[in-house]
Fold each of these.
Amino acid sequence: MEVASTETANLNTAVDDGRAEEGGRRPQHLDRLSFSPVQLPHLADYLPNLQTITNPLENSQFYHPSDEFYLSSSDVILRQTVLDLSGNFHSPSTSPHLSYPRAGPRKLIFFDPSHVRAAIVTCGGLCPGMNTVIRELVVGLWELYGVREIYGVKAGYRGFYSGEPVRLNPKLVHNWHKMGGTVLETSRGGFDLDKIVNGIQDRGFNQVYIIGGDGTMRGAVTIFNEICHRKLNVAVAGIPKTVDNDIGIIDKSFGFQTAVEMAQQPINAAHVEAESAVNGIGLVKLMGRSTGHIALHATLSSRDVDCCLIPENEFYLEGKGGLFEFLDARLKENGHAVLVVAEGAGQDMIPRTDAQKEERDESGNPVFLDVGGWLKSELKKWWARDHPDELFTVKYIDPTYMIRAVPANATDNLYCTLLAHSAIHGVMAGYTGFVCGPINGNYAYIPVKEVALAKNEVNTRDHKWAWVRSVTNQPDFGRS
Amino acid sequence: MEVASTETANLNTAVDDGRAEEGGRRPQHLDRLSFSPVQLPHLADYLPNLQTITNPLENSQFYHPSDEFYLSSSDVILRQTVLDLSGNFHSPSTSPHLSYPRAGPRKLIFFDPSHVRAAIVTCGGLCPGMNTVIRELVVGLWELYGVREIYGVKAGYRGFYSGEPVRLNPKLVHNWHKMGGTVLETSRGGFDLDKIVNGIQDRGFNQVYIIGGDGTMRGAVTIFNEICHRKLNVAVAGIPKTVDNDIGIIDKSFGFQTAVEMAQQPINAAHVEAESAVNGIGLVKLMGRSTGHIALHATLSSRDVDCCLIPENEFYLEGKGGLFEFLDARLKENGHAVLVVAEGAGQDMIPRTDAQKEERDESGNPVFLDVGGWLKSELKKWWARDHPDELFTVKYIDPTYMIRAVPANATDNLYCTLLAHSAIHGVMAGYTGFVCGPINGNYAYIPVKEVALAKNEVNTRDHKWAWVRSVTNQPDFGRS
Amino acid sequence: MEVASTETANLNTAVDDGRAEEGGRRPQHLDRLSFSPVQLPHLADYLPNLQTITNPLENSQFYHPSDEFYLSSSDVILRQTVLDLSGNFHSPSTSPHLSYPRAGPRKLIFFDPSHVRAAIVTCGGLCPGMNTVIRELVVGLWELYGVREIYGVKAGYRGFYSGEPVRLNPKLVHNWHKMGGTVLETSRGGFDLDKIVNGIQDRGFNQVYIIGGDGTMRGAVTIFNEICHRKLNVAVAGIPKTVDNDIGIIDKSFGFQTAVEMAQQPINAAHVEAESAVNGIGLVKLMGRSTGHIALHATLSSRDVDCCLIPENEFYLEGKGGLFEFLDARLKENGHAVLVVAEGAGQDMIPRTDAQKEERDESGNPVFLDVGGWLKSELKKWWARDHPDELFTVKYIDPTYMIRAVPANATDNLYCTLLAHSAIHGVMAGYTGFVCGPINGNYAYIPVKEVALAKNEVNTRDHKWAWVRSVTNQPDFGRS
Amino acid sequence: MEVASTETANLNTAVDDGRAEEGGRRPQHLDRLSFSPVQLPHLADYLPNLQTITNPLENSQFYHPSDEFYLSSSDVILRQTVLDLSGNFHSPSTSPHLSYPRAGPRKLIFFDPSHVRAAIVTCGGLCPGMNTVIRELVVGLWELYGVREIYGVKAGYRGFYSGEPVRLNPKLVHNWHKMGGTVLETSRGGFDLDKIVNGIQDRGFNQVYIIGGDGTMRGAVTIFNEICHRKLNVAVAGIPKTVDNDIGIIDKSFGFQTAVEMAQQPINAAHVEAESAVNGIGLVKLMGRSTGHIALHATLSSRDVDCCLIPENEFYLEGKGGLFEFLDARLKENGHAVLVVAEGAGQDMIPRTDAQKEERDESGNPVFLDVGGWLKSELKKWWARDHPDELFTVKYIDPTYMIRAVPANATDNLYCTLLAHSAIHGVMAGYTGFVCGPINGNYAYIPVKEVALAKNEVNTRDHKWAWVRSVTNQPDFGRS
């Protein structure tokens, strides 16, 4: 499962002719890009004598797969598509130019469908599309490959060793993609490696589909390792779920687009409340513990937001270039303002009681305080101090559950569908310890180990953030 | 404006070790990819002595652009990201590996904002997001660059020479992104090259932003050529608009996602009508004259559709493998079925009267007949013939205007925003004869000439379509 | 407009002091109103020795019914609430002042829940809320009265004698209120009195709940009569369903509000299409075969409609006061216009082929021609004739199925819930041959015979229509 | 402005024949109902020599008012429609049977439109539909009566004496009915009688339209009284606005239906969160300070709510019949439960700090504590104590601003439209000191004095509540 050697920076950059600064000329030479294909773990890596059979899609009544239908291991997707031909300053040019195996059906498969016992589990918080992924895993396994033993593991990882899995079939899951949440139920914690792998063995599962966030994916790595260690003929596929979109490598996580769409509602409400008041401020807290993707995308989608605060960009309230100064200007100009704040922003600025300093969440991290409530209170204090005789209103909205508990929208439903089918094709082809997801718009397989470590943060040093910030025209709090 | 030489097939492919067919091995060697940067037309190409000034974003009160903020001509985006390392069969490996200039602000600009007179025009049919593009062109020019003379040209190309342009400013366009259609009005036809370019000169416009479909883009090419010919200091930027998503090179066109989202409503309605009847068929016609993207995406998003008919894939009604046989099976199995048909599908199958054979639309093409109405009638005839004593219902929905006349959803609003800002940055940097759009997720500049010719069809020979078809499990009418 | 004294009918009117003409004085005396309670059929009418038992709600674990909880036959609802004290001209004052029994639980019931076999059937076209009514009949019978044998009769009246009824329970119907259409399926026709009543007897049903339109209610009258004739201990309750809102006596039919809400979408789309074109006309056809309620309410809700055409008010196209003249004025004034037309409007104006003249629908009435398509064509001819050189666009939307195939909105869900519970309480109390529905905001029982005959038309002679017409400021085509 | 004498209980009740308890018989005699018309204040009450003119609607180009078009003072609407013919126990039979003047145009009016200067003001919190009312007041005055001087008073009552009113016209307000909030801005407080009436005089307003809640209506009474006292030729009309629906006499307040509709979203989200967890509780706080109408209607509309807590019905947590016992049972049965709580419920149960005991809102009442936060905390404590080893989740949603800051739905838009036109017709006819609103489905005029005092509470002693409670099957906490 080694990621192949990457003796890289293999970018033969063009010589910039020096006129770029003058505004419009372009390099003249062809450029060459080296890249290194990422290796994917496979059951055959430790079970060398597995039998293969021809993909049963060959026998479909309705369609007739041509040779092009099947993908081979030589079909790859480039990870890096933005380049600086001058090789001078932008970071992309120095990162390794990896490629990942393309997702899709293989002509030979490593599982006899009549022997498959598949398990599906959902872990962590809710995210739009979970039920679609489950539904499509069931429908895909059943319809495309003829698998008949498919089980839903209830209530997260603990379901592998407590409680009874539910038998699933296409009829049962028929309408699940129109429902928010997860019919299989979910929970946090409950990760007990031995119990889980024993449970997998005891119940005879040989395909395990794990839908969850970064913590869950780290758990999946451990499970995968243990399964390798025990040399079990069990494939493990992860399907990354994080409404925050904070998982790296893949373009974006499922449910994220739905969340951004839904976030327009509270932003609209905040905008209306602010506009309808005298010196009205609408304040919306959006999900995003360590990353501000939802806040940022929702802001750019809405165009009603004056300022968007995210964890990746520190901010301050008082003084020159601070939030209060900016809001003062906006209120004078427009009579109202709308603030969006990601839940993870400003955590260092909120005073904590001694008890709060000690408090830890299930993962051992300091608990998050409510940045929205704190901001509301600070805003009121500021106004009462600086403008004691003027009307002022702050309306604070925390729409968290209303955003994440909805069914996936059309974009995410399609995404979840292709994600689930990608996972099935990969597992049937004998891959294991992988996740699937879109890279530059095409579905790829990625070692779960890589994804469990990759973090997708808003890079505030990057051109993109700067540019986007220029769209909103909001302060950068001293960043440059 | 030559696309640089492409001494191609520059893919040093790995030697496939022959085990791919056995299900899981991967190539061992690093691979190298050559690519050729696309050249973009620039005002300096024919006006060599233009002055440049420093980008006024430098003086923003609120943010402090770092060096990384500005892009140069060496920042490019790869077009091709899916590769077959074996170089054997899949088409991508043989196409030229082009790269396009990345969109974004340049440090030196070729327009003094105080001398800019910008014109914005919308042409052709409605598409979600047109008003957002207009709004953001106005707000971006005004807020980022300090342009104060911005005009809306009314009712399409003819507005350049008839009627008075409307002066626009941020206050006026404030809420336009929440409205469907185009406040500037639109029309088809009215393209009179001389009158248009004269109108541009007479009114003193030096930046022209043209929002329209492929016909409009072909017009933009002509306008651009004439402007070059006259050596006018006028930059022309196109913003491709096609709800059908049939424009090539760019990832997808704005409004397309909204249309797919909206298409879920009629599909749901058709599904409900079909399910509530005995042998009920729900039939939905979706936009897509020469391409089936909306139909295809809406089908994959919905999961309630039994069969999706698109122009790129011929179909037939009677006999083995035909539509009727398939529907017969579905009705027996489920008691109902849902059909989605793109408006351009099956045009050759519909009998035409002599008058209809002669009829031509504004562009000289045969007019489209209503494939939905025809299908409904054929379905009824078939049933009456084959099952005269059984109940049967076909409910046909044509939701065209309800889909395209809505405001953009969040995804498309963000898209339109970045599109407009991309166009502004490009024009201010002196580029001309270009369009902007996302390529593999990043915004790029593309010669309008290329886009006007590129057609984005659903490639039914490609792996992707085949795979997708396997998701819906629908007949392929003999395709393989 | 004399408000003359008139101790007419049963109205003891005040003496008007003659100052009405001066603008504001009022009668001084108390007035008296006679009214006559409507009699409701009861099983005891022809089965005099039925046993009663105490309502099992008495034994509820969770709530404790007080005496006020139960209604008696003396609880009634007045039908007429708008009066003209002068008694002179307005119609209300001369109609009989009826009262209807109030719906709700009775303390003594005529059915032993353990012996109940309830049948539920849906007939005719779809209407938002059908599934809610079914769900609540099931849940109410089960939870409130402990009934355990509840059956869904499939696909309309024919289901009583062909096919097998489906056993229903609360778990099964749990989410039905969130689904459009009817899970029980529906059909038109299939009314065979003998077979139906035999089917009821054969299957041992003793409570029959019939959900359907006016035709269905006339069928219910016949079934009820036959059951009386056979002296069967079978109660028949009707639940009037007509999305057109054309059933009389009750305030409005379920699903109607949802339809009006949904109709805003096509009207918005038509408005956007019209506004975005030069001389654009948006044309929307809304349901309403003999009555224009949906069109009228949707028009008043929208405020974007310039003219609303309904079956109750004849219109004409050409000449003074005609539609074309009006549209000409609107296009000159605003550049666009929106038309709403009820499907039953203008049927006499559309030319029919000989075949069409002969054609009859299932009920023997002439088939409806597409007034929208006809209007679109007439509009185009008119413009081409009168303004040959000007641009003109008509966009025609027929949203019928998209409006009626949706789930009920909150208002209608509540309505359907109370409707179903009303029906249950009435049937358990031994009433039969009745329907339930709100009269002046409170739920009442009404003999099905009355409702089957009552027609709810928009009274264009009435003050209300005139006033409403003044809101839209549209032409009245010579009406006064 | 006396409400005419009400020598009441004039109900000649039928003699119940004693068989009601046996389940089905009805009274035999006609019954008679006395009622007393309510008197409405009129400018002529203190300005006896006002001139009248013929309603300019007579001269409309488009429609031709018949005699029936105009209403007179003898057109009334009965308030009481539910009767107990036995006169025995139910409260309705003993209340006075009032009638109110019907709203609509009068043939003679007391204002010359060319001399009208109308002022519109919005006060208090946001409510869906405020902008529609404003829009329709402007459009109605302008289009129907030809009034040209219409002003929006900014930011509530204080706008009469500070700041400049905004001139309004139909073009300006064209799209306001599609926007939430109030474009005129609103505020609480600022009521200074002298300054307000002086401001009215100084600015020459002679029609004042006041949109606001019960506090605002009490202010309107005072303003009206002072105007009478000063004998000003100024008509005052109130338009009751309370999203809580806590104003009496009228059927329901505008915006209420929209709020109930919107409340389905958080309830759905809470339901999904609860269902997706192990022992999950979804908790939603809905508006309703002294009344539980939104909570109650939203509960009945949703059918996903297990228990609805409202201010009118006390509840308790611990012990037999308490909330915890009920939830325990539901969790055992279904694995999850959904709670809806009105913001004013349980205020006496929440412990207050000394500071909180002192705290008063702008009206001098004790501030409301967050019942949702308190319940969430109590639920967690209960579970930790009683089920320490079992998973448990409470998700709490406070959707307040997301519910009230939306535009009115179709039902409320129509309502607001008729409300505004009713107010205009009443004012033009010289009535003053009145509000308008629907009574039993028809629009009426009511003395503002009456409405300012009338409270619309959920009557938990009444049959209706009991019956409704039986629908939800929730505990009644000892009520009977």
Amino acid sequence: MIDVQEKLQSTVHELHGPHPADPKVIKRLKNIEGQVRGILRMVEEEKYCVEIMNQISAARAALHSVGMVILKRHVETCVADAIEAGGTERTHIIDELMHVLSKNEK
Amino acid sequence: MIDVQEKLQSTVHELHGPHPADPKVIKRLKNIEGQVRGILRMVEEEKYCVEIMNQISAARAALHSVGMVILKRHVETCVADAIEAGGTERTHIIDELMHVLSKNEK
Amino acid sequence: MIDVQEKLQSTVHELHGPHPADPKVIKRLKNIEGQVRGILRMVEEEKYCVEIMNQISAARAALHSVGMVILKRHVETCVADAIEAGGTERTHIIDELMHVLSKNEK
Amino acid sequence: MIDVQEKLQSTVHELHGPHPADPKVIKRLKNIEGQVRGILRMVEEEKYCVEIMNQISAARAALHSVGMVILKRHVETCVADAIEAGGTERTHIIDELMHVLSKNEK
């Protein structure tokens, strides 16, 4: 399963080429890294659990939001290209997308 | 709204005292910090978006799981104590819990 | 596992007695039943998939919201009583609550 | 906003034509309708709240799962066609998809 997955991923990646790293995504991820470090500090400093849980929710929401940015670009480029390529490329990229989406929602 | 919230939190905190920091929670949060740094590197190295999205889902799931550990202890200690204290303590802690849970699920 | 679960549930139920059915919850559930029937009709009438998906999201949100009402009352009554009873009642009801919450969020 | 949305939807719908109703989706939705009716009965019969919450989670999961079937077909047909059509069709359908996905996950 993993092999098929990896093979597919590399094929798709070859087809489209990598996306140049989005500076906004990088900036947001740096913020999230800081948020997680902040949560760690809150736990070490024995802050009130509800405050910690609220920060965890915020970090999860921020990660989700970055994921949506990456997902959008994925659909606009990789998925769109594979759909235009047709055939197994098209089937595979849609299966892969559905798989990502089903994980994403948990 | 924030003032009421903060006032409640400090009251509850005084009532129960802080929880000693759980070493397992700290360890897990350090791992999550590493995961986020890994995601950052994947973006910089222009990895395939699906791999990045999978790592984002994994980091979110890990955060959620730490949140559940903290939530459980919160219920066992702060919520349980406030319920036993009764009165407004009890009403407030349950309102606060419902508020946290409604955020948590997004 | 199921036996333990069921035994616990019946014990808890005996302890607290059933909650009288909340008319607002019943009204909301009737609305949700209507929403689901509406979705069914949209599928049969071959409506645009995005409209159908939006209605599915709305029905899921409505179910979630009813679940939160029931959860709140559960915490206020069953959980509170079991916490005051202490001992295994307390441990069990919290384990059960965490189990419900972990399912609820998917 | 709604007008734009509706206009887009009707355009897309005209482009692709409706999908013939999927008998499996209809069957599943009938089951979900039955599940919701079952939850209603459980509330009326004053069943244990945890059992009711579990059934609510199950109904939400079933709705989500039907939503994923509809989403997959939407991507395979409407989204794929609009991507091949290009231009504003392509931009619009992707925006709409992202909008649906962001709602779907709550």
Amino acid sequence: MADLRPPEHQVAGHRASVDNLGPLVDDAGLFYKPLQAGDRGEHELAFYIAFSAHPAVPPRIRDAFFPRFHGTRRIPTAARPGELYPHIVLEDLLAGIAAPCVADIKIGACTWSPLAPEPYVAKCLAKDLETTSALLGFRVSGVRVAGQGGAVWRPERSELKGIDTAGVRGVLRRYVSSCGGDGPDCALAAAVYGGDWGVLAQLRELKAWFEEQTLFHFYSASILLGYDANAVSAPGGGVRVKLVDFAHVDEGEGVIDHNFLGGLCSLIKFIADIVAEASEMASSGH
Amino acid sequence: MADLRPPEHQVAGHRASVDNLGPLVDDAGLFYKPLQAGDRGEHELAFYIAFSAHPAVPPRIRDAFFPRFHGTRRIPTAARPGELYPHIVLEDLLAGIAAPCVADIKIGACTWSPLAPEPYVAKCLAKDLETTSALLGFRVSGVRVAGQGGAVWRPERSELKGIDTAGVRGVLRRYVSSCGGDGPDCALAAAVYGGDWGVLAQLRELKAWFEEQTLFHFYSASILLGYDANAVSAPGGGVRVKLVDFAHVDEGEGVIDHNFLGGLCSLIKFIADIVAEASEMASSGH
């Protein structure tokens, strides 16, 4: 376990330290997520167990859009010395990416289940109204953009919390811009968002599943976007679209996840607008 | 104005009487909606004025899915004797239907705008959680089914308020069943919900618009379904899908109406499931 370390490119949640439990990664491409406190950790683990074996989940959806589940493991942590703390073991979604550009986007106007207890609902609702969740159907929880020459843009969480619609548009533009220029140039919009297996194509495939699937309701889950700034023009480009954070997943009981689906459609529209703008700018020679 | 009368087939809202203002219809196919109290009436009127002239609304969407707007008129009412009360004048969506079958379905998990004042949000949220709105993304506000021989099924509003997911499925089945049998037979599911211009095809066209349109957010609006029980097998069948009730519409400001869209997708799934079941039952000879 000597190679366990906090992921360099983590953009949301606590960072593992002597003060906090946090995710760890190893050289074998595994991601260790400490079991969350209360019943959240057990709830997330139960989701992974149910989801990874569910006969009604298309293998293509599971493989393309979810981290592979490798069970649980008890490992030593800096935050709990002298103890082996239980972790959910997952595929490290950003393994092998040299210059990771990552965005964590929490999907859904409501981050709380209608079945959740009242004080929890009130707390989440207040946050949904303060952030862009209620208005846009999603909020950007974290972002990291690595540019040429090692420059990294990684706004503070407090900075992201205060942004409005225009701010979200700005972040989604900057996510596909070369670092260090005067404002976002969207130079990578076509390569990362567009194309046959870019973000937009992947989000649309995910949307088609959400129009049909009535197995799970993904409250407070995120879509993680990732690409490699050093390999974006390579075939495939390494563009990844994955769902993460399943501590608040409900059973669907025959009803689609209209909350996630609505937010996903809103995100698709934002990204499609950026691709269209970038394509117009390119064709007009700017 | 001698021919003004409350619509026979009204399923939601106050009925016009000496005690209450309510909608009226005339023989010319017009529907008179009294201006609602507070700023709701003015807000709804402002929506109709903006919407009916908006250059970015496709004429096909306006004509197919919205009541035609005919301005305002001040008319005498039983509730306000000696006064001419202002009404919004609209197309009577059910004019010319001999045996109207109507369902009023309020769309959206949230019936309140994130920009609405706090006490209003709390009141609406409580209702969204008590009814099926939060869980299903829509609730059935009213329904009327006219069967052969004059039989009519029209549950009380209080009865509809208490229904759960299975109850909603039951109402949507009964809406396309012949009256008076032992439970819903879904005999009209293919004719009303299915087909080239049935409810499902119309809802899907509406959905395609909602995936793109960023002009309006339709909080607390309803989809009104209507068909003529006496003419359901006629060409066209008179199946109608219309949006109504615009007292809480916000400007979209470049963002799609993910709340309405999510609820609409959920309704589509419910109805598609009923069409599929009915088709299986028909092909298995039951």
